[in-house]
Task: structure prediction
Amino acid sequence: MAKNKKTKSSKSEPVIENRRARHDYAISETLEVGIALVGTEVKAVRAGRVSLNEGFVLASVEPTALTLHQVSIGEYGPGGTRQHKLDRVRMLLAHKREIRKIARQLDTKGVTVVPLKMYFKEGRVKLLIGIGTGRATHDKRRAIAERESKRELQRLMSRRG
Result:
């Protein structure tokens, strides 16, 4: 009989979310990709020192690559003098066909790829990216109004039931 795998300690890994992206963009499709980081970057992510708010993803067909731009990963304090650059361009890891598909979608006017969430999965840093189009101001207001009406309805239903 096989032994159960031991789970790590109950120390929870951080999940960094870009909540602004879902507000500013109508996300039509999401994709989980890996990210190539250096040692101090991984430790800084584990400490939660990441800002995804200004980030975006570019795809190129030749060479086939996904790159993450303007995502700031802060310094890792005990790292000493051998620190990483805060705003460097980072390579994203995905299958070639997925990269080509994203590159084709990016050729369409108004389509952009933004990072939505950074998290750990089986000890590796993963990034959830979203493909979407920018929302106009009136669309944002409509989405907020719909969300508020749903909350109010839920609140009323919970009081009655």
Remarks:
- The chain has one domain: 16-135.
- The first strand starts at residue 16 and ends at 17.
- The chain has a mean pLDDT of 85.
